[in-house]
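User: ok so my PI wants both of these folded by tonight, can you help

Assistant: No problem, let's get them done. Here's the first:
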Amino acid sequence: MGVLKRFEQRLEGLVNGTFAKVFKSEVQPVEIAGALQRECDNNAQIWNRERTVVPNDFIVELSAPDYERLSPYSGQLGDELAGLVRDYAKQQRYTFMGPIKVHLERADDLDTGLYRVRSRTLASSTSQPQPHAGNPPQPHQPQGQGGGYGYPQGPPAGAPPMPSAPPPGGAGHRPPAGGGRPPAAGGTQVRRWIEINGNRHQISRPTLVLGRSTDADVRIDDPGVSRRHCEIRTGTPSTIQDLGSTNGIVVDGQHTTRATLRDGSRIVVGSTTIVYRQAEG
Protein backbone atom coordinates (compact mmCIF):
# COMPACT_ATOMS: atom_id res chain seq x y z
CA MET A 1 0.00 0.00 0.00
CA GLY A 2 1.35 3.45 -0.91
CA VAL A 3 2.46 6.00 1.66
CA LEU A 4 -0.24 8.48 0.61
CA LYS A 5 -2.96 5.85 0.89
CA ARG A 6 -1.88 4.87 4.40
CA PHE A 7 -1.82 8.53 5.41
CA GLU A 8 -5.32 9.05 4.02
CA GLN A 9 -6.63 6.03 5.91
CA ARG A 10 -5.13 7.29 9.18
CA LEU A 11 -6.88 10.62 8.71
CA GLU A 12 -10.17 8.93 7.83
CA GLY A 13 -10.00 7.21 11.19
CA LEU A 14 -10.00 10.64 12.84
CA VAL A 15 -12.81 12.20 10.82
CA ASN A 16 -15.34 11.67 13.61
CA GLY A 17 -12.95 13.14 16.16
CA THR A 18 -10.83 16.26 16.22
CA PHE A 19 -10.22 16.20 12.44
CA ALA A 20 -13.91 16.42 11.53
CA LYS A 21 -13.68 20.14 10.76
CA VAL A 22 -10.39 19.82 8.91
CA PHE A 23 -12.08 18.01 6.03
CA LYS A 24 -14.49 20.88 5.49
CA SER A 25 -11.58 23.02 4.34
CA GLU A 26 -11.06 23.69 0.66
CA VAL A 27 -7.50 22.42 1.02
CA GLN A 28 -7.45 18.71 1.83
CA PRO A 29 -4.66 17.27 4.02
CA VAL A 30 -3.94 14.53 1.48
CA GLU A 31 -3.21 17.22 -1.14
CA ILE A 32 -0.67 18.84 1.18
CA ALA A 33 0.82 15.39 1.83
CA GLY A 34 1.34 14.82 -1.89
CA ALA A 35 2.98 18.26 -2.21
CA LEU A 36 5.43 17.41 0.59
CA GLN A 37 6.43 14.21 -1.19
CA ARG A 38 7.13 16.14 -4.39
CA GLU A 39 9.02 18.80 -2.41
CA CYS A 40 11.38 16.08 -1.20
CA ASP A 41 11.84 14.72 -4.73
CA ASN A 42 12.43 18.17 -6.27
CA ASN A 43 15.02 19.17 -3.67
CA ALA A 44 16.91 15.92 -3.13
CA GLN A 45 20.69 16.40 -3.16
CA ILE A 46 23.36 13.74 -3.42
CA TRP A 47 25.61 13.97 -0.34
CA ASN A 48 27.81 11.05 -1.31
CA ARG A 49 27.40 7.78 -3.12
CA GLU A 50 25.32 6.31 -0.27
CA ARG A 51 23.29 9.29 0.90
CA THR A 52 20.71 11.54 -0.74
CA VAL A 53 19.67 14.39 1.55
CA VAL A 54 16.21 16.01 1.43
CA PRO A 55 14.71 18.98 3.32
CA ASN A 56 13.49 18.37 6.85
CA ASP A 57 11.74 21.68 7.65
CA PHE A 58 8.56 22.47 5.70
CA ILE A 59 6.26 25.51 5.73
CA VAL A 60 2.80 25.19 4.20
CA GLU A 61 1.32 28.59 3.34
CA LEU A 62 -2.48 28.67 3.32
CA SER A 63 -5.09 31.25 2.37
CA ALA A 64 -6.67 33.12 5.29
CA PRO A 65 -9.91 31.05 5.28
CA ASP A 66 -8.06 27.73 5.04
CA TYR A 67 -5.58 28.74 7.72
CA GLU A 68 -8.41 29.68 10.09
CA ARG A 69 -9.99 26.25 9.55
CA LEU A 70 -6.80 24.23 9.87
CA SER A 71 -4.75 26.17 12.44
CA PRO A 72 -6.59 24.80 15.52
CA TYR A 73 -5.37 21.35 14.49
CA SER A 74 -1.93 22.45 13.24
CA GLY A 75 -0.04 20.49 15.89
CA GLN A 76 -1.72 17.16 15.21
CA LEU A 77 -1.83 17.71 11.46
CA GLY A 78 1.83 18.75 11.45
CA ASP A 79 2.78 15.56 13.29
CA GLU A 80 0.81 13.41 10.84
CA LEU A 81 2.39 15.17 7.85
CA ALA A 82 5.87 14.82 9.35
CA GLY A 83 5.20 11.11 9.79
CA LEU A 84 4.21 10.83 6.15
CA VAL A 85 7.43 12.57 5.05
CA ARG A 86 9.41 10.16 7.25
CA ASP A 87 7.63 7.12 5.74
CA TYR A 88 8.10 8.41 2.19
CA ALA A 89 11.79 9.14 2.76
CA LYS A 90 12.30 5.64 4.12
CA GLN A 91 10.63 4.22 1.02
CA GLN A 92 12.83 6.37 -1.28
CA ARG A 93 16.01 5.84 0.83
CA TYR A 94 16.37 9.54 1.56
CA THR A 95 18.10 10.91 4.66
CA PHE A 96 17.71 14.11 6.73
CA MET A 97 20.08 16.56 8.38
CA GLY A 98 17.81 16.92 11.42
CA PRO A 99 14.31 16.30 12.80
CA ILE A 100 11.32 16.66 10.48
CA LYS A 101 8.92 19.53 11.12
CA VAL A 102 5.87 20.77 9.22
CA HIS A 103 4.45 24.22 10.00
CA LEU A 104 1.30 25.98 8.78
CA GLU A 105 1.42 29.70 7.95
CA ARG A 106 -1.14 32.22 6.77
CA ALA A 107 -0.58 33.89 3.37
CA ASP A 108 -2.96 36.74 2.59
CA ASP A 109 -2.08 36.72 -1.12
CA LEU A 110 -3.59 33.24 -1.63
CA ASP A 111 -7.21 32.53 -2.47
CA THR A 112 -9.21 29.79 -0.77
CA GLY A 113 -8.07 26.34 -1.92
CA LEU A 114 -4.58 27.45 -2.97
CA TYR A 115 -1.39 26.93 -1.02
CA ARG A 116 2.41 27.03 -1.31
CA VAL A 117 5.04 24.74 0.14
CA ARG A 118 8.49 26.01 1.12
CA SER A 119 11.25 23.86 2.50
CA ARG A 120 14.76 24.06 3.87
CA THR A 121 17.45 21.83 5.30
CA LEU A 122 18.11 22.50 8.99
CA ALA A 123 21.03 20.67 10.53
CA SER A 124 20.96 19.00 13.92
CA SER A 125 23.86 19.49 16.32
CA THR A 126 25.81 16.72 14.57
CA SER A 127 25.53 18.41 11.14
CA GLN A 128 25.48 14.96 9.54
CA PRO A 129 22.66 13.30 7.57
CA GLN A 130 20.36 11.36 9.87
CA PRO A 131 19.19 7.97 8.53
CA HIS A 132 15.69 6.84 9.39
CA ALA A 133 15.09 4.33 12.14
CA GLY A 134 15.46 0.86 10.71
CA ASN A 135 16.77 2.18 7.38
CA PRO A 136 20.57 2.17 6.95
CA PRO A 137 21.92 4.98 4.73
CA GLN A 138 21.63 4.25 1.02
CA PRO A 139 22.67 5.68 -2.22
CA HIS A 140 13.95 15.76 -5.81
CA GLN A 141 4.11 24.63 -7.02
CA PRO A 142 6.28 27.03 -7.62
CA GLN A 143 3.14 26.78 -5.62
CA GLY A 144 0.91 24.34 -3.88
CA GLN A 145 0.90 20.84 -5.11
CA GLY A 146 4.06 19.67 -6.66
CA GLY A 147 7.05 21.62 -5.73
CA GLY A 148 7.65 24.53 -3.52
CA TYR A 149 8.95 27.95 -3.20
CA GLY A 150 12.02 26.58 -1.48
CA TYR A 151 14.64 28.18 0.67
CA PRO A 152 18.05 27.90 -1.01
CA GLN A 153 19.16 24.32 -0.68
CA GLY A 154 22.68 23.22 0.18
CA PRO A 155 24.82 22.09 3.09
CA PRO A 156 23.86 23.95 6.29
CA ALA A 157 26.44 26.15 8.00
CA GLY A 158 29.15 24.09 9.61
CA ALA A 159 28.53 21.02 7.48
CA PRO A 160 31.35 19.59 5.37
CA PRO A 161 31.32 20.60 1.70
CA MET A 162 28.96 18.54 -0.44
CA PRO A 163 30.79 16.76 -3.24
CA SER A 164 29.72 17.34 -6.79
CA ALA A 165 27.07 14.94 -7.99
CA PRO A 166 28.45 12.13 -10.15
CA PRO A 167 27.47 12.12 -13.82
CA PRO A 168 24.24 10.31 -14.76
CA GLY A 169 24.73 6.57 -14.65
CA GLY A 170 27.90 6.91 -12.54
CA ALA A 171 28.54 5.42 -9.14
CA GLY A 172 26.21 6.73 -6.51
CA HIS A 173 23.86 8.37 -8.98
CA ARG A 174 20.26 8.14 -7.86
CA PRO A 175 17.79 10.14 -9.95
CA PRO A 176 14.69 11.70 -8.37
CA ALA A 177 11.76 9.38 -7.77
CA GLY A 178 10.02 8.67 -11.04
CA GLY A 179 13.11 9.17 -13.21
CA GLY A 180 15.01 12.12 -14.60
CA ARG A 181 14.25 14.58 -17.34
CA PRO A 182 14.86 13.20 -20.82
CA PRO A 183 17.57 15.06 -22.75
CA ALA A 184 16.61 16.92 -25.90
CA ALA A 185 18.46 16.82 -29.17
CA GLY A 186 21.93 18.32 -28.95
CA GLY A 187 22.33 17.38 -25.29
CA THR A 188 20.15 20.16 -23.84
CA GLN A 189 17.48 19.17 -21.36
CA VAL A 190 13.81 19.93 -21.77
CA ARG A 191 11.98 20.92 -18.61
CA ARG A 192 8.30 20.02 -18.62
CA TRP A 193 5.59 20.96 -16.17
CA ILE A 194 1.87 21.62 -15.89
CA GLU A 195 0.04 24.45 -14.14
CA ILE A 196 -3.29 23.90 -12.37
CA ASN A 197 -4.99 26.81 -10.61
CA GLY A 198 -1.65 28.55 -10.25
CA ASN A 199 0.08 25.45 -8.87
CA ARG A 200 3.05 23.99 -10.74
CA HIS A 201 3.69 20.25 -11.08
CA GLN A 202 7.04 19.18 -12.52
CA ILE A 203 7.03 16.31 -15.03
CA SER A 204 10.10 14.20 -14.30
CA ARG A 205 9.04 10.81 -15.61
CA PRO A 206 8.05 9.34 -19.00
CA THR A 207 4.35 9.27 -18.05
CA LEU A 208 2.23 11.37 -15.67
CA VAL A 209 -1.26 10.20 -14.69
CA LEU A 210 -3.84 12.82 -13.74
CA GLY A 211 -7.03 11.95 -11.91
CA ARG A 212 -9.13 12.10 -8.76
CA SER A 213 -7.57 9.01 -7.17
CA THR A 214 -4.91 9.37 -4.49
CA ASP A 215 -2.90 6.90 -6.57
CA ALA A 216 -2.70 9.36 -9.51
CA ASP A 217 0.62 11.17 -10.01
CA VAL A 218 -1.26 14.49 -9.88
CA ARG A 219 -4.50 14.42 -7.92
CA ILE A 220 -7.31 16.72 -9.17
CA ASP A 221 -10.14 17.24 -6.70
CA ASP A 222 -12.94 17.75 -9.22
CA PRO A 223 -16.15 15.66 -9.33
CA GLY A 224 -16.05 15.78 -13.12
CA VAL A 225 -12.64 14.09 -13.19
CA SER A 226 -12.31 10.29 -13.24
CA ARG A 227 -10.04 8.44 -10.84
CA ARG A 228 -7.50 7.86 -13.63
CA HIS A 229 -8.58 10.44 -16.16
CA CYS A 230 -5.72 10.96 -18.59
CA GLU A 231 -1.98 10.51 -19.01
CA ILE A 232 0.73 12.85 -20.31
CA ARG A 233 3.52 11.04 -22.16
CA THR A 234 6.78 12.90 -22.58
CA GLY A 235 8.64 12.68 -25.85
CA THR A 236 9.30 14.58 -29.07
CA PRO A 237 6.58 15.67 -29.17
CA SER A 238 4.81 15.09 -25.86
CA THR A 239 1.24 13.78 -26.04
CA ILE A 240 -1.81 13.39 -23.83
CA GLN A 241 -3.99 10.26 -23.83
CA ASP A 242 -7.49 9.83 -22.38
CA LEU A 243 -7.61 6.77 -20.10
CA GLY A 244 -11.26 5.90 -20.66
CA SER A 245 -12.57 8.75 -18.52
CA THR A 246 -16.27 9.49 -18.16
CA ASN A 247 -16.18 13.08 -19.42
CA GLY A 248 -13.20 12.96 -21.79
CA ILE A 249 -10.59 15.65 -22.41
CA VAL A 250 -10.54 18.91 -24.36
CA VAL A 251 -7.18 20.04 -25.75
CA ASP A 252 -6.89 23.55 -27.19
CA GLY A 253 -10.66 23.68 -27.64
CA GLN A 254 -11.05 20.26 -29.31
CA HIS A 255 -12.68 17.19 -27.77
CA THR A 256 -10.26 14.32 -28.30
CA THR A 257 -8.92 11.06 -26.91
CA ARG A 258 -5.30 11.77 -27.88
CA ALA A 259 -3.47 14.95 -28.83
CA THR A 260 0.00 16.39 -29.32
CA LEU A 261 1.04 18.94 -26.71
CA ARG A 262 3.00 22.13 -27.27
CA ASP A 263 4.14 24.81 -24.86
CA GLY A 264 1.00 26.61 -23.73
CA SER A 265 -1.48 23.86 -24.65
CA ARG A 266 -4.67 24.13 -22.58
CA ILE A 267 -6.24 20.90 -21.36
CA VAL A 268 -9.70 20.80 -19.79
CA VAL A 269 -10.76 17.85 -17.61
CA GLY A 270 -14.10 18.17 -15.83
CA SER A 271 -14.22 21.85 -14.85
CA THR A 272 -10.45 22.09 -14.35
CA THR A 273 -8.07 23.76 -16.82
CA ILE A 274 -4.48 22.52 -17.09
CA VAL A 275 -1.74 24.41 -18.95
CA TYR A 276 1.14 22.34 -20.33
CA ARG A 277 4.57 24.01 -20.35
CA GLN A 278 8.00 23.07 -21.63
CA ALA A 279 11.30 24.89 -22.04
CA GLU A 280 14.89 24.00 -22.81
CA GLY A 281 17.64 24.39 -20.29
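One down. Here's the second:
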Amino acid sequence: MFYTDLCKMLNIKYPILQGGMAWVATGELAAAVSNAGGLGIIGAGNAPADVVENEIKKVKSLTEKPFAVNVYYMSPFVDDIIDLVIKEEVPVITTGAGNPGKHIDKLKEANIKVIPVVASASLAKRLERLGVDAVIAEGMECGGHIGELTTMSIVPQVVDAIDIPVIAAGGIADGRGFAAAFMLGAKGVQMGTRFVCAEECTVHKNYKEAILKAKDRSTVVTGMPTGHPVRVLKNRLSRQFQLLEKQGVDIKELEELGMGKLRAAVVDGDIDNGSLMAGQIAGLIDDILPAKVIIERIIREAEETIKKFNIRNI
Protein backbone atom coordinates (compact mmCIF):
# COMPACT_ATOMS: atom_id res chain seq x y z
CA MET A 1 0.00 0.00 0.00
CA PHE A 2 2.83 2.42 0.81
CA TYR A 3 5.30 1.63 -1.95
CA THR A 4 5.73 5.13 -3.40
CA ASP A 5 7.88 6.89 -5.98
CA LEU A 6 10.27 7.63 -3.13
CA CYS A 7 10.69 3.92 -2.41
CA LYS A 8 11.54 3.28 -6.04
CA MET A 9 13.99 6.21 -6.14
CA LEU A 10 15.85 5.12 -3.00
CA ASN A 11 15.45 1.36 -3.48
CA ILE A 12 13.80 0.88 -0.08
CA LYS A 13 10.79 -1.18 1.00
CA TYR A 14 9.04 1.40 3.18
CA PRO A 15 9.00 5.22 2.73
CA ILE A 16 10.46 5.82 6.18
CA LEU A 17 13.69 7.76 6.76
CA GLN A 18 15.49 7.87 10.08
CA GLY A 19 16.58 11.34 11.08
CA GLY A 20 20.28 12.16 10.71
CA MET A 21 20.75 13.28 14.31
CA ALA A 22 24.25 14.34 15.34
CA TRP A 23 25.79 12.04 17.98
CA VAL A 24 22.63 9.88 17.84
CA ALA A 25 22.45 8.56 14.27
CA THR A 26 25.38 6.14 14.35
CA GLY A 27 26.20 3.27 12.05
CA GLU A 28 24.43 0.78 14.30
CA LEU A 29 21.11 2.62 14.13
CA ALA A 30 21.38 3.43 10.44
CA ALA A 31 22.08 -0.20 9.55
CA ALA A 32 19.17 -1.43 11.67
CA VAL A 33 16.71 0.94 9.99
CA SER A 34 17.97 0.04 6.52
CA ASN A 35 17.78 -3.68 7.29
CA ALA A 36 14.19 -3.12 8.42
CA GLY A 37 13.23 -1.67 5.03
CA GLY A 38 13.61 2.05 5.68
CA LEU A 39 16.49 4.40 4.93
CA GLY A 40 18.99 4.55 7.77
CA ILE A 41 20.98 7.77 8.00
CA ILE A 42 24.33 8.54 9.63
CA GLY A 43 24.44 11.97 11.26
CA ALA A 44 27.73 13.64 10.33
CA GLY A 45 27.10 16.71 12.48
CA ASN A 46 30.31 18.61 13.15
CA ALA A 47 32.43 15.45 13.09
CA PRO A 48 35.60 15.31 10.96
CA ALA A 49 35.71 13.03 7.94
CA ASP A 50 37.64 10.21 9.63
CA VAL A 51 34.94 9.83 12.28
CA VAL A 52 32.18 9.76 9.68
CA GLU A 53 34.18 7.31 7.57
CA ASN A 54 34.28 4.88 10.50
CA GLU A 55 30.48 5.05 10.76
CA ILE A 56 30.10 4.46 7.01
CA LYS A 57 32.32 1.39 7.21
CA LYS A 58 30.31 0.20 10.18
CA VAL A 59 27.07 0.45 8.20
CA LYS A 60 28.59 -1.38 5.25
CA SER A 61 29.65 -4.21 7.57
CA LEU A 62 26.11 -4.53 8.97
CA THR A 63 23.90 -4.19 5.90
CA GLU A 64 23.88 -4.40 2.12
CA LYS A 65 20.81 -2.16 1.95
CA PRO A 66 20.88 1.51 0.87
CA PHE A 67 21.73 4.08 3.54
CA ALA A 68 22.45 7.80 3.70
CA VAL A 69 24.64 10.39 5.39
CA ASN A 70 23.22 13.63 6.73
CA VAL A 71 25.54 16.51 5.82
CA TYR A 72 25.39 19.46 8.22
CA TYR A 73 26.28 22.60 6.28
CA MET A 74 27.40 24.57 9.33
CA SER A 75 30.16 22.02 9.93
CA PRO A 76 33.73 23.21 9.32
CA PHE A 77 34.34 19.85 7.61
CA VAL A 78 31.48 19.99 5.11
CA ASP A 79 33.71 19.89 2.01
CA ASP A 80 35.62 16.93 3.42
CA ILE A 81 32.35 15.10 4.13
CA ILE A 82 31.17 15.67 0.56
CA ASP A 83 34.44 14.23 -0.77
CA LEU A 84 34.07 11.30 1.63
CA VAL A 85 30.53 10.34 0.59
CA ILE A 86 31.62 10.42 -3.05
CA LYS A 87 34.67 8.27 -2.33
CA GLU A 88 32.62 5.78 -0.31
CA GLU A 89 29.85 5.71 -2.93
CA VAL A 90 27.15 6.57 -0.41
CA PRO A 91 23.90 6.33 -2.41
CA VAL A 92 21.99 9.16 -0.70
CA ILE A 93 22.69 12.27 1.35
CA THR A 94 20.29 14.44 3.28
CA THR A 95 21.37 17.99 4.11
CA GLY A 96 20.55 20.59 6.71
CA ALA A 97 21.50 24.07 7.94
CA GLY A 98 22.58 25.33 4.55
CA ASN A 99 22.27 25.19 0.78
CA PRO A 100 23.91 22.19 -0.95
CA GLY A 101 23.87 23.98 -4.31
CA LYS A 102 27.64 24.30 -4.68
CA HIS A 103 28.03 20.52 -4.41
CA ILE A 104 25.06 19.40 -6.51
CA ASP A 105 26.97 18.88 -9.76
CA LYS A 106 29.73 16.72 -8.30
CA LEU A 107 27.22 14.71 -6.27
CA LYS A 108 25.12 14.12 -9.38
CA GLU A 109 28.20 13.02 -11.29
CA ALA A 110 28.73 10.44 -8.56
CA ASN A 111 25.08 9.29 -8.88
CA ILE A 112 24.28 10.36 -5.31
CA LYS A 113 20.71 11.34 -4.49
CA VAL A 114 20.44 14.70 -2.68
CA ILE A 115 17.56 15.35 -0.27
CA PRO A 116 17.71 18.64 1.70
CA VAL A 117 15.64 19.54 4.74
CA VAL A 118 13.53 22.64 4.07
CA ALA A 119 11.55 24.94 6.33
CA SER A 120 9.63 26.84 3.62
CA ALA A 121 8.03 26.36 0.22
CA SER A 122 10.20 29.08 -1.32
CA LEU A 123 13.38 27.25 -0.33
CA ALA A 124 11.95 23.99 -1.69
CA LYS A 125 11.30 25.66 -5.07
CA ARG A 126 14.80 27.09 -5.21
CA LEU A 127 16.38 23.73 -4.42
CA GLU A 128 14.22 21.94 -6.98
CA ARG A 129 15.63 24.28 -9.63
CA LEU A 130 19.14 23.34 -8.50
CA GLY A 131 18.37 19.68 -9.19
CA VAL A 132 17.79 18.01 -5.81
CA ASP A 133 15.92 14.70 -5.93
CA ALA A 134 13.42 15.24 -3.10
CA VAL A 135 12.99 17.46 -0.04
CA ILE A 136 12.19 16.88 3.61
CA ALA A 137 9.57 19.40 4.75
CA GLU A 138 10.19 19.62 8.48
CA GLY A 139 7.78 21.24 10.90
CA MET A 140 8.75 22.97 14.13
CA GLU A 141 7.40 20.05 16.18
CA CYS A 142 10.68 18.26 15.53
CA GLY A 143 13.54 17.94 17.99
CA GLY A 144 16.80 19.82 17.53
CA HIS A 145 17.01 22.81 15.17
CA ILE A 146 13.58 24.03 14.11
CA GLY A 147 11.90 26.37 11.64
CA GLU A 148 8.81 28.53 12.08
CA LEU A 149 6.04 26.48 10.42
CA THR A 150 4.22 23.43 11.72
CA THR A 151 4.22 20.12 9.88
CA MET A 152 0.50 20.43 9.14
CA SER A 153 1.05 23.78 7.42
CA ILE A 154 4.40 23.33 5.69
CA VAL A 155 3.91 19.90 4.09
CA PRO A 156 0.90 20.66 1.83
CA GLN A 157 2.36 24.02 0.82
CA VAL A 158 5.64 22.42 -0.22
CA VAL A 159 3.76 19.62 -1.99
CA ASP A 160 1.84 22.21 -4.01
CA ALA A 161 4.97 24.22 -4.79
CA ILE A 162 7.21 21.53 -6.32
CA ASP A 163 7.04 18.42 -8.50
CA ILE A 164 9.66 16.25 -6.79
CA PRO A 165 8.77 13.97 -3.83
CA VAL A 166 8.16 15.57 -0.44
CA ILE A 167 9.02 13.78 2.80
CA ALA A 168 7.16 14.95 5.92
CA ALA A 169 9.02 15.35 9.21
CA GLY A 170 8.25 16.71 12.65
CA GLY A 171 5.75 15.22 15.10
CA ILE A 172 5.51 11.76 13.53
CA ALA A 173 6.01 8.66 15.66
CA ASP A 174 3.22 6.21 14.90
CA GLY A 175 0.97 4.94 12.12
CA ARG A 176 -1.58 7.71 12.56
CA GLY A 177 1.03 10.39 11.92
CA PHE A 178 2.43 8.37 9.02
CA ALA A 179 -1.02 8.12 7.41
CA ALA A 180 -1.70 11.82 8.02
CA ALA A 181 1.51 12.76 6.21
CA PHE A 182 0.28 10.92 3.11
CA MET A 183 -3.07 12.69 3.29
CA LEU A 184 -1.11 15.96 3.15
CA GLY A 185 0.55 14.82 -0.07
CA ALA A 186 3.87 13.50 1.25
CA LYS A 187 5.51 10.46 -0.35
CA GLY A 188 7.31 9.43 2.81
CA VAL A 189 8.18 10.45 6.36
CA GLN A 190 11.30 11.10 8.39
CA MET A 191 11.35 10.32 12.11
CA GLY A 192 13.99 11.19 14.66
CA THR A 193 12.74 11.02 18.24
CA ARG A 194 10.96 7.70 17.72
CA PHE A 195 14.24 6.10 16.59
CA VAL A 196 16.15 7.46 19.59
CA CYS A 197 14.17 4.85 21.48
CA ALA A 198 15.14 2.02 19.15
CA GLU A 199 17.10 -0.81 20.76
CA GLU A 200 19.90 -0.33 18.25
CA CYS A 201 20.31 3.36 19.07
CA THR A 202 23.52 3.74 21.11
CA VAL A 203 22.59 6.86 23.08
CA HIS A 204 22.95 6.74 26.86
CA LYS A 205 20.08 4.98 28.62
CA ASN A 206 19.34 8.16 30.59
CA TYR A 207 18.52 9.95 27.34
CA LYS A 208 16.08 7.24 26.30
CA GLU A 209 14.47 7.18 29.75
CA ALA A 210 13.99 10.97 29.63
CA ILE A 211 12.04 10.57 26.39
CA LEU A 212 9.96 7.73 27.83
CA LYS A 213 9.03 9.94 30.80
CA ALA A 214 8.15 12.93 28.62
CA LYS A 215 4.61 14.32 28.45
CA ASP A 216 2.90 16.39 25.77
CA ARG A 217 4.31 19.67 27.13
CA SER A 218 7.77 18.45 28.11
CA THR A 219 9.69 20.25 25.36
CA VAL A 220 10.73 23.87 25.05
CA VAL A 221 12.46 25.94 22.38
CA THR A 222 15.75 27.57 23.38
CA GLY A 223 18.31 29.74 21.61
CA MET A 224 15.87 31.95 19.69
CA PRO A 225 18.16 35.03 19.85
CA THR A 226 20.98 33.10 18.15
CA GLY A 227 18.90 32.58 15.02
CA HIS A 228 19.24 28.81 15.41
CA PRO A 229 16.49 27.80 17.85
CA VAL A 230 16.54 24.27 19.24
CA ARG A 231 13.73 22.14 20.68
CA VAL A 232 14.76 20.15 23.76
CA LEU A 233 13.26 18.43 26.76
CA LYS A 234 12.94 20.77 29.73
CA ASN A 235 15.77 20.48 32.24
CA ARG A 236 18.26 22.59 34.17
CA LEU A 237 20.10 23.59 30.97
CA SER A 238 16.94 24.74 29.20
CA ARG A 239 16.01 26.86 32.22
CA GLN A 240 19.48 28.45 32.12
CA PHE A 241 18.95 29.31 28.48
CA GLN A 242 15.55 30.83 29.15
CA LEU A 243 16.89 32.92 32.03
CA LEU A 244 19.82 34.28 30.01
CA GLU A 245 17.56 35.00 27.03
CA LYS A 246 15.23 37.04 29.25
CA GLN A 247 18.24 38.95 30.56
CA GLY A 248 19.23 39.78 26.99
CA VAL A 249 22.80 38.50 27.28
CA ASP A 250 25.18 38.56 24.34
CA ILE A 251 24.56 35.83 21.75
CA LYS A 252 28.11 34.55 22.24
CA GLU A 253 27.29 33.73 25.86
CA LEU A 254 24.33 31.64 24.75
CA GLU A 255 26.44 29.87 22.15
CA GLU A 256 29.13 29.10 24.71
CA LEU A 257 26.51 27.71 27.09
CA GLY A 258 25.36 25.28 24.40
CA MET A 259 28.82 24.05 23.38
CA GLY A 260 29.31 20.33 24.00
CA LYS A 261 25.92 19.94 25.63
CA LEU A 262 24.46 17.52 23.06
CA ARG A 263 27.38 15.15 23.57
CA ALA A 264 26.94 15.48 27.33
CA ALA A 265 23.38 14.21 27.02
CA VAL A 266 23.85 11.58 24.31
CA VAL A 267 27.17 10.08 25.37
CA ASP A 268 27.52 10.92 29.07
CA GLY A 269 23.85 10.68 29.99
CA ASP A 270 23.75 14.07 31.71
CA ILE A 271 20.03 14.72 31.62
CA ASP A 272 20.25 17.81 33.81
CA ASN A 273 22.96 19.81 32.07
CA GLY A 274 22.93 18.19 28.63
CA SER A 275 20.94 19.20 25.57
CA LEU A 276 18.12 16.64 25.39
CA MET A 277 17.01 17.26 21.82
CA ALA A 278 13.58 15.71 21.26
CA GLY A 279 10.39 16.50 19.38
CA GLN A 280 6.96 17.32 20.77
CA ILE A 281 5.93 13.78 19.91
CA ALA A 282 8.14 12.48 22.76
CA GLY A 283 5.07 12.23 24.97
CA LEU A 284 3.69 9.56 22.66
CA ILE A 285 6.71 7.27 23.02
CA ASP A 286 6.56 4.79 25.87
CA ASP A 287 8.67 1.82 24.79
CA ILE A 288 12.08 0.83 23.46
CA LEU A 289 11.82 -1.54 20.51
CA PRO A 290 13.97 -2.92 17.70
CA ALA A 291 13.94 -0.67 14.63
CA LYS A 292 12.30 -3.44 12.63
CA VAL A 293 9.40 -3.65 15.09
CA ILE A 294 9.00 0.14 15.12
CA ILE A 295 8.75 0.30 11.34
CA GLU A 296 6.49 -2.71 10.90
CA ARG A 297 4.15 -1.49 13.64
CA ILE A 298 3.90 1.95 12.03
CA ILE A 299 3.06 0.45 8.64
CA ARG A 300 0.43 -1.84 10.20
CA GLU A 301 -1.13 1.04 12.17
CA ALA A 302 -1.20 3.22 9.09
CA GLU A 303 -2.92 0.54 7.01
CA GLU A 304 -5.50 0.03 9.77
CA THR A 305 -6.09 3.78 10.02
CA ILE A 306 -6.67 4.14 6.29
CA LYS A 307 -8.99 1.13 6.16
CA LYS A 308 -10.94 2.48 9.11
CA PHE A 309 -11.80 5.61 7.17
CA ASN A 310 -12.24 3.75 3.90
CA ILE A 311 -9.54 5.73 2.10
CA ARG A 312 -8.82 3.82 -1.09
CA ASN A 313 -6.03 5.76 -2.76
CA ILE A 314 -2.94 7.43 -1.31
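The chain has 14 helices and eleven strands. The mean pLDDT is 94. Good luck tonight!
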